[in-house]
Specification:
By secondary structure, the protein is mainly alpha-helical. It is built from 27 helices and five strands. The longest helix has 34 residues. It is globular. The two termini are 43 Å apart.
Length: 632
């Protein structure tokens, strides 16, 4: 523990009001003794990669690539990564590292946007609820995989009359349906009818794992095996975060690297199977359709996948970067994380489609008939394909354990966002009680997740996913750029980054200026407007949501975004002067905006400079409006 004289202690408190107590989990060698740092850079990179590489990389990107022209999709995907993904990831990382604060307190740079930080935390809170449930699904399937044969390999006592491993084909001959057709009489049949069936894996998902009800109106009881798996997921998260980043940083050595081991194992096994080449050809091979590049929808899908896979606008990137050393090379880290994330998506697609190609070969059906996205890929199509392999329980256990570890990394960061913001907001209360705070947060998420493990749970999960985790994030990302680049000032922000990274040339910043000032905000605005214009009511398969369910979805959106105008009003009421002067003062940095440690503040953010800036802000009525615009 560092020893302070009364004068040095008073100066430290005055310079940084958040410094009131030392976290007992802070390491002795940390640069920031009050708040703590990552033990080493590896832990930060692994945690950030684990946060960025989520379930969407496994089950969403491969499907989008297949749907949007195969290998041709990589062109718009990497273009969007370069012009929007990397610049925004770099911006969020640098912002969190500069002030060593979470997504709420970073808006001391532009207090008028503080509500956007609260909205980011609300999105993370809501998404963490259903993400925990998806982890519970993975845990259940992992345990169910310790059986031979796999329970979804064939129809069983739990299956209905529509369950079948082969499609039911009938021939309509003069109004009479004839079944049990052979290949010879199929060719001579005038009218062929295919009866609707469900594969064993689909029936197992609906009837056993979910015990799914008919609609959102029919809630049903809690599915207890899922509730227990949800509890196990909660216990794992609470244990990993018991000491904050000091404990989670150790866990990610396994959880962030193990998925790559499994992906490589599944890929090697997959490419040795019959039909694997056909699957890969459809994914990214000769079946690629370059004409799709002229379809605007392909570019929209590429941009949205880039934003969502990098978790931009969630607050997690800022939170993880806030524990870096001040002079950490966040520029290089942004490239490492974003390119690793993109490479993981492409690699996972090869592992997925090689085995789906084998499944299509077994069923003697076109590959497009077996490909699904989202839950259908992870819990229906791929488990079905794995059940056709020799030693199928082994491959199934590996696959679902991989989903578990991928999900846990993202969940760790989500909970860390919530706890970090609470500690930053009330350090006197929470800083010495991080363990209790992590446990209480995890328990809170568990209780909120219980409706998602009822018989109607999958409808709740889909509702949250399609409303909260979609275009709302585009709104927050756009406000983030406006707040930092146009209100705080892009050139001022670049000057702040040079305090961390060292002086850079004008040419170095030219590309980043182009992206931050023009390309990225325009791109996000276009996609946001397009998403709103093409919005369709959510559904789960063929099940439509009732009107009250859709209304609840919109209420969740209002709950997330309401904090933005609410904090504008609250901060306006606390400011002094006329309404216009109050508004202008909220567009200028607060006195508390500076690097966390006084040693890093220099002359620009010295105590005297901050006090003078605050005094100038109080007299903003005498300041011309060009003060704001000149920072650009």
């Amino acid at each position: 523990m560092r020893k302070y004289s009364w004068s040095s202690f008073k100066d430290t408190i005055f310079a940084n009001p958040a410094v009131v107590d030392q976290d007992p989990h802070v390491g002795e060698g940390d640069e920031n003794q009050e708040r703590g740092n990552w033990t080493n850079k590896r832990e930060y990179l692994l945690s950030t990669i684990g946060y960025a590489v989520g379930l969407g990389n496994i089950w969403r990107f491969p499907y989008l690539a297949y749907k949007n022209g195969g290998g041709a999709f990589l062109i718009p995907y990497f273009v969007m990564l370069v012009v929007a993904g990397i610049p925004l990831f770099f911006l969020e990382s640098a912002l969190g590292q500069f002030c060593s604060q979470g997504p709420i307190n970073v808006w001391r740079a532009a207090p008028i946007m503080q509500g956007a930080g609260v909205s980011m935390v609300m999105v993370t809170l809501i998404v963490s609820i259903y993400y925990n449930v998806i982890i519970a699904y993975s845990i259940y399937y992992m345990f169910a995989s310790f059986q031979s044969p796999l329970p979804w390999a064939s129809c069983s006592a739990w299956s209905g009359s529509n369950c079948s491993v082969t499609p039911a084909v009938y021939c309509n001959i003069s109004g009479v349906l004839v079944s049990n057709l052979t290949q010879e009489n199929i060719t001579s049949c005038p009218t062929i009818l295919t009866a609707p069936i469900q594969s064993p894996s689909e029936e197992y998902w609906d009837e056993v794992a979910l015990q799914r009800s008919s609609s959102l109106d029919e809630t049903g009881p809690v599915v207890w095996h899922l509730a227990l798996c949800l509890l196990l997921s909660t216990v794992i998260c609470a244990a990993a975060l018991i000491k904050g980043i000091k404990s989670s940083g150790k866990v990610v050595y396994f959880t962030a690297t193990f998925p790559y081991v499994v992906i490589l194992i599944l890929l090697i096994r997959g490419v040795t199977l019959e039909g694997a080449r056909d699957g890969i050809e459809f994914y990214i091979g000769s079946q690629s359709n370059l004409t799709k590049l002229g379809d605007a929808q392909v570019w929209k899908d590429a941009a949205t996948q880039t934003f969502y896979s990098l978790s931009i606008g969630w607050g997690g990137v800022m939170t993880l970067a806030s524990y870096n050393n001040f002079h950490n090379n966040v520029f290089k880290d942004a490239f490492v994380v974003t390119l690793t994330n993109a490479g993981t998506s492409v690699l996972a697609g090869f592992a997925i489609f090689s085995i789906l190609g084998h499944m299509a070969f077994i069923y003697q059906t076109p590959i497009e008939k077996v490909v699904k996205d989202g839950f259908g890929l992870a819990f229906i199509a791929y488990p079905d394909a794995l059940s056709k392999l020799p030693i199928s329980p082994l491959w199934s256990v590996l696959f679902f354990f991989m989903l578990l570890t991928v999900g846990l990394d993202s969940q760790f960061a989500g909970i860390e966002v919530i706890t970090t913001c609470m500690i930053d907001a009330a350090p006197k209360i929470f800083k010495s009680k991080r363990a209790i705070l992590s446990i209480v947060t995890s328990v809170f998420l568990y209780l909120l997740g219980l409706p998602c493990v009822t018989q109607a749970g999958i409808y709740w999960v889909t509702l949250i996913d399609q409303f909260v985790a979609t275009w709302v994030l585009l709104v927050l990302a756009l406000l983030e750029i406006i707040g930092i680049i146009y209100i705080y000032g892009g050139n001022r922000f670049i000057g702040d980054m040079e305090m961390m990274l060292g002086q850079k040339s004008f040419c170095f910043w030219l590309w980043w200026r182009a992206c931050w000032f023009v390309i990225s905000p325009c791109l996000i605005a276009v996609i946001l407007v397009w998403s709103l214009l093409t919005f369709t009511p959510p559904s789960y398969g063929s099940v439509q949501y009732p009107m009250w369910g859709q209304a609840l979805g919109w209420c969740m959106i209002v709950f997330v975004l309401l904090w933005i105008p609410l904090f504008v009003v609250l901060n306006m009421l606390k400011a002094k002067g006329t309404v216009w002067n109050r508004l202008k003062s909220l567009c200028l940095p607060s006195e508390d905006w500076h690097p966390y440690l006084e040693i890093h503040r220099g002359e620009k953010y010295s105590k005297e400079a901050c006090q003078q800036r605050h005094s100038d802000n109080s007299d903003v009525s005498q300041t011309d409006l060009t003060v704001i615009s000149s920072k650009l």
